[in-house]
Amino acid sequence: MIPYIARRIVQAIFVVLGVTIIVFIILRLLPGGPARALLGPRATNQQVQEFIVANGYNKPVWIQYGTYLGHLIHGNLGFSYHYNQTVDSLLAQDLPKTAVLVGLSYLISIAVAIPLGILQAVRRNKPIDYGLTGLSFIGYSMPVFWLGILLILIFAVNLHWLPPEAPQGTTIGAILSQPSGLVLPVATLSIITIAQFSRFMRSSAIENLVQDYIRTARGNGLSSGAVLFRHLLRNSLLPIITLVGLSLPATLSGAVITESVFNYPGMGLLLWTAATVRDYPVMLGFTVVVGAATVVGSLLADILYAVADPRVRYA
Amino acid sequence: MSLVREPDAAQPVPGAPPAGDAGAGSVWRLIWQVFLQNRLAVVGLGIIAFMILFCFVGPLLYHTNQVQISILQVTQRPSAKHLLGTDNVGYDVLGRLMLGGQSSLEVGFAAAILASVWGTAWGAVAGYAGGWLDAVMMRVVDSILAIPYLLVVLILATIFTPTVPVLIIVIAMVSWLVTARLVRGETLSLRVRDYVLAAKAAGVRGRWIIVRHIVPNVIGTIVVAATFSVADAILLLAALSYLGLGPPPPAANWGGMLSNGLNYVYDGYWWLVYPAGLAIVLTVVAFNFIGDALRDALEVRLRQR
Questions:
Q1: CA distance A17 to A66
Q2: Which of the listed CATH numbers 1.20.1110.10, 1.10.3720.10, 3.60.21.10, 1.10.4030.10 matches domain A91-308?
């Protein structure tokens, strides 16, 4: 197991480096050159020239990349000219809020998708399976923003059950203190994730149902409920670890849209605002951090999986 | 299950190297038959055929002005003159649905084709070369995959003016990765097959082996991945349009129409929302149906050999 994990860690380090190279390439592509992009349209030419010299943007490209990497390692992600704040402080402020949104959605999605998938596998090709399959197809074929606005229309405008806007506040505590406002954004993100996860659970449960250990358990006279819970559920839980790791980039993309629909004060909303005012330091800084976090997340998922399932380490 | 299948897989594939001969032909016929047995896939195929006819032939039969806005007839209800009413600047919604569908489908198909070609080349070269080149090429794929695609697309769309060709390239840049991974995985197992080894021993160059022997044998995987890519590209274009980074007017696409209509959702102008929204959902569902069925049908092919 140790060699497997060591290999994965080395790979992950290279992937994180790859992310920084991609972001550096984008930085070089920016209109007006990196100095202009980082200082913003209002900086004077003299400021731009001074910035170029001070940060080594007149040196060869590999030295520029080295300087850039050095800044990143020291936790210096740049300065947002739109918010007049360091990108680090913006990140510290908004990333946890997005983590709350995404984390809650994952918990709900897993809790709903697993039983749903198993139900579909057991009742395979029965009306309930067809119905749920149809729903999940619609779930992941629907533009996220439309889904969010439909939920607002139904539950906030027509039924008056829930507020149409996400809770506002700078701290996590302030957001969690208004749970009713969290319901719709979390539901929006959960619905699309459930649609994906339940499809996956269905096929993995169908595969498991024909395995020998299930037949043996049945043959030993175990009731079908016990077979489902003690054997099928436990074996189907494992792939979910990988699935969460794999789906993280897609879910974060969904979070950007969800946050802009519900005005949820997280990373996604900040990014969208940054994109509309071309605030490149924020966009690039967040891209590096989110990319690195995703790599670490899938690394942890793989290690967890290897610890839980001996078949992986020897494969 | 794998124990049962492996002895079969070790046997030479009937007529595999030249993919177009009689043996392979009957395999493709079998795939087609299995595909047609899947009712959802047939429905999906029907929807796509309808959408293509609607968007590309429709404007020849239903003439509307989609260039000049007409401020005197905005947000009119559906009537005999405007079958689906007019939007907030006076465009006929039905005609706009056809025009918007053209760019949505064009972006979807073009991005998927571009991504498939690039992803196949990348994956086949990495898998065939192996060693360091493979490791480096695959870490590049992992790195791009690690960044949420919407972030990449968002940044690229702010750098370049988001015209349709630019959006096709931008969307293709984030959707070739899965194809590359799948093709590389299959190439790893194909490159030690006897017919590849024989070709190598006969002095055939690597490039030719990839084109002639590897790619024809992973074409199924490529097609399945491409089908899902079309669906994803249409949704991604819609998301970009919602974020204000879609093709600017007077160009139209379903996502842009939907997000524009949603500005009026509280005014009861349903014809600005549901036609575009349903067009997206129907088309994306149809591509997903087809992709699922193709995957099942191709598994039959795997079982067959």
A1: 11
A2: 1.10.3720.10
